[in-house]
Amino acid sequence: MSEHDDQVPEKTGHEWDGIEEYDNPLPKWWLWVFYATVVWGIGYTIAYPAWPMVDRATGGLLGYSTRALVAEEIAEVEARNADLNEALANVDLVALDETPELESYATNMGAAVFRAQCSQCHGSGAAGAKGFPNLVDDAWIWGGRIEEIAYTVAHGIRNESSPDARWSQMPAFGRDGILSDEEIDQVVQHVLAISGQEHDAQMAEAGSEIYASQCASCHGADGQGSLAQTREFQEGGESFPNDETIGAPNLTDAIWLYGGDEETLTETVHNSRFGVMPAWAEEWRQPGLSQAEINAVSAYVHQLGGGQ
Amino acid sequence: MSASDAPKLYASREPVFPRRVSGFFRRMKWWIMGVTLGIYYLLPWIRWDRGPEMPNQAVLLDLADRRFFFFWIEIWPHEFYFVAGLLVMAGLGLFLFTSALGRVWCGYACPQTVWTDLFILTERWIDGDRNARIRLWNAPWSAKKVRLRVTKYIVWALIGLATGGAWIFYFADAPTLAVDLVTGQAHPVAYTTMAILTFTTVFMGGVAREQVCIYACPWPRIQAAMMDESTITIGYRDWRGEPRGKGNVKRRSAAKAEAAARVSQAAGEPAGRQYPPTPYPGHENKLGAWPSPDPAVARGDCIDCMACVNVCPMGIDIRNGQQMECITCGLCIDACDEVMGKIGKPRGLIDYFALQDEQVERAGGTPTKIWKHIFRPRTIVYTSLWSLIGAALIFALFMQPDIDLTVAPVRNPVYVQMADGTVRNAYEIRVRNKHGEARPFRITLSGDPMLYLDVEGTPYETVTVPADSMALERVYVMAPPGSEQAEAARTGFRFWVTDLTNGDRTYEDSHFNGLGR
């Protein structure tokens, strides 16, 4: 713009193929900041874990460890929740909904326990699979009241670890030669009939007699299952201990643990079934679930939509 | 080139001691400083009634509850697009102002500029004006120097503390927090934030100053892309000022006028050719004489008094032309206008003008009108975009409902078949209540007569949502056994939420998943 020399920055004198370099020096403090970062970097690697060695990195003078921090945080949370856990371990589950705060804590904790321990068989959405009951629907084999669920969780089903495990064994009618193949076909037709599916009326008629003599003692005369009988007793004012239910499924509803089609039913009657669930109480299983965790997961399962 | 005369790679900072100046731009900067600092320090103290259960602070960033309050506006996290929109508007606004008026943001409104100005002001109160400050800087350490330095840093620390203090009041109830701060009851985070901001304020405004603009700020590097030949920016009319020089003003002017007349006549030009005036509020419109083309007698208007350099907070010489360091604060214009007044010359040797006009004026032409510079396609495009987004945000603000619902179908499992054959779907419904009190809401569904609803644990499908919060409800929708909806793969329907207090309702569409047979 003007002819004044001071408008043009000085040049360094470097020149490559006619390209010259302006002399725009960095501020000195910039250099000092750079040295400071170097010093900081060295100090940091001394104070904190940094240099990789053969099997682990150097630990650092401050003894910092993210693992230790997590353990500390977990311990802190446990300590903070100690009162709630104590209350949850001793709560009367039937009255849990009277203390909404504890109930909310229980369902949240139960959801975590469920994801960690139960979802492998029952599914993350608790919808189950063939042989593993769906916990979201309203059909229960061993009882869907919260205290019944807690008992099932604590003692499990058909396991050797808890002497109080829920236990029953359907006979393998075909394999053990109790019924002939024809009789099995007939009783399957009867089950198809009482569950409202397509069936051969004549065979079902014949099957109903076999059913009455072989199956009704557990599944009930009308096929409503053992739980319906238990409820009748309970409504009649009789106490019915948890470990005395026999877990014979309702054969008239729309829900089948293994399948309700002719082929699967035939297989079930011929070979029987033997689903096992572990006893989760710490008494029977290490590592198991504490009483608070059992109560929590029971509360969680109970509120999934099928609880009674 | 040998190693000994190699250029230095690092340079020490040249300290800058801006002289006091008065004039139009200085006054404007005082006003802008007063208003911006006033807004910053006082805004958190304004109260705003939102009902008994809501905070009564007009501007509050409630991070713990994830709410942003701005007078009558309340922003929830899902409405964060308002903030994004405002940021886009701020960016476009910056483009608009820069393309029209150069670095006005840097010169007048940037916090770095405003606080630096404040720190220079307090420095001047304590140490004196430019010359006193230079003397003090060069003086050896003495009791007086120590006293002045200690006083200065204490005052700066207090300004920094007030700055950091005001910042945290935006994030919590200001009166409560103020009491807590004084009594030592406030959260450690509040004290830490205050301490950090106190330090950065003093460091950036008091110590680093122009270094922040030159080395730390990306904007000076970007803004060149926003500016063009029509942008109004600060420059030096070198055709008028050069050749610069000191000397007896009166004698020189007389000689110059005489010589100019002589030379112009020789060149066949009319005597006493004058350059166009550059009018300004508070200044007389004087006409100045064109410098003589004869180099032997030529003298420009610039008397090389260095006033423009001495007042510059960036420590640059504007006469060297457009520079990255220049924040266009206008103080050199004030300083130069004052000097031009004293020597009886027209103002505007250093002035706001478009670079394009600089060429025109040099050739003796008439510069384009300012409004023609400002209203050019580029600025019109920026303004249109800016207004468009602004209009969209205002529209969204008025459309913003006080109740809101979102429906998340539970897809694990997709459906559940009940013992009697009923097919059931679960949905997680979030009902938002933006009112200042708890209100009952009824959830209903429409669109399919066979589907029916069950809201867990609540009679009459009615849930009460606490004030200014969201309630999560697990809701079941069922289709009777054997019905078309139970058998079909998908059936559409609509959830409604009705505010039972005033009848407001809103809906969201969803789907029911059947057996799909």
TrEMBL record, chain A:
Work out whether the entry's keyword set contains Transport. yes
Q: Does the keyword Heme apply?
A: yes
Q: Which residues bind heme c 1?
A: 118, 121-122, 277
Tell me where it resides: Cell inner membrane
The transmembrane segments are 29-51
Annotated binding of heme c 2, by residue = 170, 215, 218-219
Cofactor(s), names only, from the UniProt record: heme c
Q: Which GO terms describe its biological process?
A: oxidative phosphorylation; proton transmembrane transport
Main localization of the protein described in the UniProt heading: membrane
Q: Which residues form the signal peptide?
A: none
Keyword set, alphabetical order: Cell inner membrane, Cell membrane, Coiled coil, Electron transport, Heme, Hydrogen ion transport, Ion transport, Iron, Membrane, Metal-binding, Oxidoreductase, Repeat, Respiratory chain, Transmembrane, Transmembrane helix, Transport
Pathway(s) annotated for this protein in UniProt: Energy metabolism; oxidative phosphorylation
Q: Hey, which family's this protein in?
A: Belongs to the CcoP / FixP family.
Q: Which PANTHER family match?
A: CBB3-TYPE CYTOCHROME C OXIDASE SUBUNIT FIXP
Query: What function is annotated for this protein?
Result: C-type cytochrome. Part of the cbb3-type cytochrome c oxidase complex.
Subunit structure, as described in the record: Component of the cbb3-type cytochrome c oxidase.
Q: What is this protein's record name?
A: Cbb3-type cytochrome c oxidase subunit
What species is this protein from?
Histidinibacterium aquaticum
| Lineage of origin | Bacteria, Pseudomonadati, Pseudomonadota, Alphaproteobacteria, Rhodobacterales
Gene behind the chain: ccoP
From TrEMBL, chain B:
- Keyword Metal-binding listed? The answer is yes
Which terms in the GO cellular component ontology are assigned?
Answer: plasma membrane
Q: Which residues form the 4Fe-4S ferredoxin-type domain?
A: 293-321
Q: Which UniProt keywords apply?
A: 4Fe-4S, Electron transport, Iron, Iron-sulfur, Membrane, Metal-binding, Transmembrane, Transmembrane helix, Transport
Give me the segments passing through the membrane: 28-46, 80-97, 153-170, 190-208, 379-399
Q: Which InterPro entries match?
A: 4Fe4S_Fe-S-bd, 4Fe4S_Fe_S_CS, Electron_Trans/Redox, FixG_C, Ig-like_fold
Under the heading SUPFAM superfamilies, the entry gives: 4Fe-4S ferredoxins (SSF54862)
Q: Which domain of life is it from?
A: Bacteria
Q: Name one GO molecular function term.
A: 4 iron, 4 sulfur cluster binding
> What PANTHER family does the entry give?
FERREDOXIN-TYPE PROTEIN NAPH
Q: What is this protein called?
A: Cytochrome c oxidase accessory protein CcoG
User: Which source organism?
Assistant: Histidinibacterium aquaticum
